[in-house]
Automatic annotation (TrEMBL):
<keyword id="KW-0028">Amino-acid biosynthesis</keyword>
<dbReference type="InterPro" id="IPR018204">
    <property type="entry name" value="Trp_synthase_alpha_AS"/>
</dbReference>
<dbReference type="GO" id="GO:0004834">
    <property type="term" value="F:tryptophan synthase activity"/>
</dbReference>
<dbReference type="InterPro" id="IPR011060">
    <property type="entry name" value="RibuloseP-bd_barrel"/>
</dbReference>
<dbReference type="Pfam" id="PF00290">
    <property type="entry name" value="Trp_syntA"/>
</dbReference>
<dbReference type="InterPro" id="IPR002028">
    <property type="entry name" value="Trp_synthase_suA"/>
</dbReference>
<comment type="pathway">
    <text>Amino-acid biosynthesis; L-tryptophan biosynthesis; L-tryptophan from chorismate: step 5/5.</text>
</comment>
<dbReference type="InterPro" id="IPR013785">
    <property type="entry name" value="Aldolase_TIM"/>
</dbReference>
<protein>
    <recommendedName>
        <fullName>Tryptophan synthase alpha chain</fullName>
        <ecNumber>4.2.1.20</ecNumber>
    </recommendedName>
</protein>
<comment type="subunit">
    <text>Tetramer of two alpha and two beta chains.</text>
</comment>
<keyword id="KW-0456">Lyase</keyword>
<keyword id="KW-0822">Tryptophan biosynthesis</keyword>
<feature type="active site" description="Proton acceptor">
    <location>
        <position position="60"/>
    </location>
</feature>
<comment type="function">
    <text>The alpha subunit is responsible for the aldol cleavage of indoleglycerol phosphate to indole and glyceraldehyde 3-phosphate.</text>
</comment>
<keyword id="KW-0057">Aromatic amino acid biosynthesis</keyword>
<dbReference type="GO" id="GO:0005829">
    <property type="term" value="C:cytosol"/>
</dbReference>
<comment type="similarity">
    <text>Belongs to the TrpA family.</text>
</comment>
Length: 270
């Protein structure tokens, strides 16, 4: 695993609380994705998660499920997505993270995926349905390509499990803020501070990113003091979809990101 101080993703947490944004690759098509990612970076996203569209995204609510269906209907595949992201490698200066389900990667080929992700400039990978103790070779292949594997924890993850997961996560630890699927409701886990304090004891210096259920500036203001970074996905996708055409979609995305950044004041910097 990469040393924390040298990790390109962890560096985004060094002097600020970063905004991490999620979009589904290929939603509604790859041409827009190639324009949307630079737009998000320019508007203030510090890290960008790009979802690999999948027909049965178990951890995702209806908004991201619909986004995945639009992407699949437009012909997006993992291979095509990686080719598109490679085009952006020298056009943006924020780390890109791929988020997807293990079946997609297994079908593509674990070693082949790691090599292709490195070629595309991917800094990290999140796989919600690959347990930390699974007998998979992917972590080895990712390490060989110097790609961080970011792990997830939830409010009901046991203390022992927390330590195991944190010890194998790189860049940051993805803390799910609610019990359920992302975008499914707007209720943040009521004991958020205690939950993150417990995670922090296991994670040590590993930064904590908080996601699932964060839908706008007001909620960000309420929780900004607790995590090391904020992750927003479903609310961004919903906002983009309110645009009537491509130009308006990009404008809506930029406006939304700017509103979130405005809710993350200098006082939030560690």
């Amino acid at each position: 695993m990469s040393k924390l101080k040298d990790n390109i993703i962890a560096q985004q947490f060094k002097d600020k609380k970063p905004l991490i944004t999620y979009i589904c690759g290929g939603d509604p098509n790859l041409a827009l994705t190639e324009k949307l990612i630079p737009c998000l970076a320019e508007a203030g996203s510090d890290l960008i998660e790009v979802g690999i569209p999948f027909s049965d995204p178990l951890a995702d609510g209806p908004v991201i499920q619909a986004a995945a269906q639009r992407a699949l209907q437009s012909g997006t595949t993992l291979k095509k997505l990686l080719i598109s992201l490679e085009k952006l490698r020298d056009k943006i200066d924020v780390p890109l993270i791929l988020m997807g389900y293990y079946n997609s990667i297994l079908n593509f080929g674990e070693e082949r995926f790691a090599r292709a992700a490195r070629k595309a400039g991917i800094a990290g990978v999140i796989i919600p349905d690959l347990p930390v103790d699974a007998a998979a070779k992917l972590p080895v292949y990712l390490a060989e390509e110097e790609i961080s594997q970011i792990r997830l924890v939830t409010p009901n993850t046991s203390r022992q499990r927390l330590q195991q997961i944190a010890s194998q996560s790189e860049g940051f630890l993805y803390c799910v803020a609610l019990l359920g699927t992302t975008g499914a409701n707007d209720q943040i886990y009521p004991e958020l501070k205690g939950y993150l304090d417990r995670v922090r004891q296991a994670a040590g210096k590993l930064p904590l990113g908080l996601g699932f259920g964060i839908d706008g500036p007001e909620k960000v203001k309420k929780i900004i003091d607790y995590p090391d970074g904020i992750i927003i996905g479903s609310a961004l996708i919903e906002t983009i979809q309110t645009g009537g055409d491509e130009a308006e979609m990009l404008a809506k995305a930029a406006e939304f990101i700017e509103s979130i950044k405005a809710a993350m004041p200098a006082a939030a910097v560690k």
